[in-house]
Amino acid sequence: MKILYNQLKQLVPGLTVTAREVGEVFTMTGLMLDGLEEVSYQGKKDWLLSLEVRQNRPDCLSVWGLARDLAAYYGLSAQWPVGEKLNPVGQPFDIKISSDKVKRVKAVQLAALRQAASPAWLTEWLAFYGLNSVNLSVDLSNYVMLLTGYASHLIDSDKVNGRLEWRLNQDKIAVATLDGTAVALTGGELVIADQNKIVALAGIVGCRGAEINQSSTNVIVEMALYDRGIIRENARRLGIVTEAGQRLSHDLAPNGLDDAFAYLIALLMEHGGGTVISPVFDYGEAVVKPAVIDFDPALVSRFAGIAVAPERSREILENLRCHISEAGNDWQVTAPADRLDLRYAEDLVEEVVRFVGYDKIPIDEVPALAVVKKITPVLYDLKDHLRDLSAARGFDEILSQPLVADSVNNETNYLNWQPVTTQNSVNEEFPDLRQSLVTGLLNQWQVFKKKNINFCQIFEIGKVFGRSGQNYQEHEAWGLLRAAEQLSVNDFKREIEYDLRSLGLTELRWRPAEHAPLLANSQATFELTLNGQPAGLVYKLKPLAAEEVVCGEVNLDAAVAALERDHHNPAVEVLGKLVALDANVETDNPRELEKVLERVRAAVPVDNFWSVAVVDEFALAKGRRYTVRVIYRDLSDQEAKESHTRLFKK
Amino acid sequence: MNNLLSQLKTDLAVATDDETVAKCWQKYLGKAGLIKLELKALSALSEVEKKQRGPAIQSLAREAQALFDEKQKSLAAVVLSRQAAAVAESPDRRIPVLGHLHPITQTIRLLNRLFVEMGYSIMEEREIETDEFCFQRLNVPADHPARDMQDTIYVAEPNWLLRTQTSSIEARILSEFKPPFKVVSPGRAYRNEKVNRSNHFVFHQYQAVVVMEKVTLKDLFGTLTHLFRGLYGEDVVIRFRNKYYPEVEPGVGPDMRCFQCQGQGCSLCKGVGWLEVAGAGMIHPRVLEMAGLDRQKWMGFAFGLGLDRLVMAKYRISDIRTLLGGNLIYKPDINENTL
Lengths: 650, 339
What we know:
Chain A is α+β, with helices and mostly antiparallel strands. Helix content of chain A is 31%, strand content 29%. Chain A folds into 5 domains: 2-74, Phenylalanyl-tRNA Synthetase, Chain B, domain 1 (2-Layer Sandwich); 95-284, Phenylalanyl-trna Synthetase, Chain B, domain 3 (Phenylalanyl-tRNA Synthetase, Chain B, domain 3, 3-Layer(bba) Sandwich); 292-359, Phenylalanyl-tRNA Synthetase, Chain B, domain 1 (2-Layer Sandwich); 378-565, BirA Bifunctional Protein, domain 2; 578-648, Alpha-Beta Plaits (2-Layer Sandwich). The model of chain B has no long low-confidence stretch (mean pLDDT 86).
């Protein structure tokens, strides 16, 4: 919101500080100065202040609102002109409100209005706000909107056919806005229409068909407030950004509309010479009951951390036009009707503290807050350890963006889940969330190759995403990629295994993967299990280039779950002895061997189980023969043999 | 004879390597060396003359050889010393190349260290978030104009989306943990923004939320000052001003004096002399209420800051896409094995 310094001085008599100081006060009290420009207005030097008005202060999207706030800060009074109340005259015109999205409307019909050229003071002033002069009536309408914050719309009543109605549009129809832009309505938009046509997109912009031009003399002036949500939604959906829409997509106080409307009518008649020929149409609640807030003045000090005397709080709140009545230690504070943002005691605290000054609060003391329980999850520490381990092993960390093409997910996914597709991705070629970190790692490798970096060891720790029905899933993963002229997938497995074991994961196995990603060499794809549960994959890529590439990915949520399940305690008391017995297993399916090992682990009682491992293998004409060694604990030789025989009997 | 010895000493004194010493040795003690010639000349002398001159020449030869031996020893010591120094300075090629952590990770670690020292926990949360936790529980209902600030990427409109801010973690923590707590949360957020040198649809934030029975704006300001001094050094100049954010009340806009112009105003700070570096405030009573917390008993502060621009400035990265796009390459350290 822009404002001229000299206009502020007119509205706030007694204001003696410089424009720069005004800017600093606005900045520190919540309306940040983001531009201060020396300008000339009406032949005199002036300063144009540009202020950032946040969403809580729509009252400050106006010259009057800013003047009021500045006056309150300095304890001064702000003054602005108001129009006279209009007396009922003539016949009411046909007007109807058919939507509950309309909160307030005031409208009146003027006749014999002249559309002279706007005076220089007006066109020059509007130019500061980036508005070109259209004609006298429209310029005055814009002027009052910027001055008061209330937007109005002017309709040539000679072009209106029948009743003027505020309603929700039901049709798919194209309309042309005042600047000639074609807009396709799809239904549901709040419009102002007569019997034949839409004359305005309510609260946003007027439409051609009933617009004011140089020959317009009979004019309907309307000023309205709407449900902020529908204005915001319509403006966004139709892609129309206007000063009116910007203001009406906020909650504005209905009681301020009366003054703004009266002032606009007064200005139109003063400069255009028309006469009012209808009673004022007045719809909706004129006044919203001001908020009454129970307020303990001690709350200011409690929040600020510095002493603020109740007298100072009272002074500030009264300068802000709050009414205070005391009830014991507490106050009842009635907020001004135009400050719809004041609802809670904390809102009043903010009002007081921003005027006391944030700069009065010490900033150099590191707070000694109470000691509290640590709630950092295991996963976070585990990820940090893995980063260190990966870097120590010579891997560089990358971070990649998670939106990918669906074809990429097809190639790299190895889990039993569906891709998550965004509905409005920033790039329609990349609609899906990644299902594997390998996508980003491969992209990075390609970049390395373009830069003649042939040896590549990279890793990423981040989220991967998937969907099971309508259940959106995501988990943390650790992905690694190594590319070089010659690589061993077994070395890669071993390195990952060492790192995971160093984190305390002991029940860790590899087995040939049943489902390999499309880009993987299925003969060199191995599934990682933790406590028997799938937890990751390591694979060599199908030959892509001169280099070989191995990738790995570990589900870290699964790793944490395994850590929490695995109460591994390597210190045990062996009262008897260890008995090692071998058995041969012949199979052409490595998964069968895994099943045998799992069967042994499950069958031998924990107190008698020491280990099971494949200690030898031999190629047969068909399949392979594996020598499995089981070591029993605290069993006699005879007991161990009996157990072993039971386990491996044909 | 004395002249010969003196000349030899002078020659040896200026010799600094084995080669020069060897040449010098040839000059004096080689087959045609000056001292050898003196010894050979003895054979042409009479026995008397041999007895008169012989011992002196042989003594000269022995002394000369001793000088050469001493010189070679001192040269060897110098070489050994140089070799030792060279070994000390050269990399051990048996040590493998070390990998590197991403600048974002390094920055997060720096921040984590600061906050863990102050007793904070570290939490992360889901990135596919619900509208409820990303907006509604942060006091941003569906029709709130503050939503205009955050163009959302939807997974299933209107309920499922990619979180637009790490404040959603705050909403989760408030609803899932019983206070008191002090938590920081590094994480990613997503907005539907065009990707260019300055903007990316994915960015990194650092969020903090503290809920206790007594905590003040002064505590918040002290914490943020500690944070910024940890990041930018003790000389950093910070100011706090009032600024609206829907999830806090009172709201705070922490600014840092522009490091480029020292507050004089420049293009970086758009002439105002300050750079916005975070968003902060006391947790809004509505946010506490929606989390089921008694706002008469509990109060808290929260803040969030963006990490990407901070990292770009620190590492002199000109294009934000570099952080996620592949052009970030780690230069080997000077001591790293480059075999």
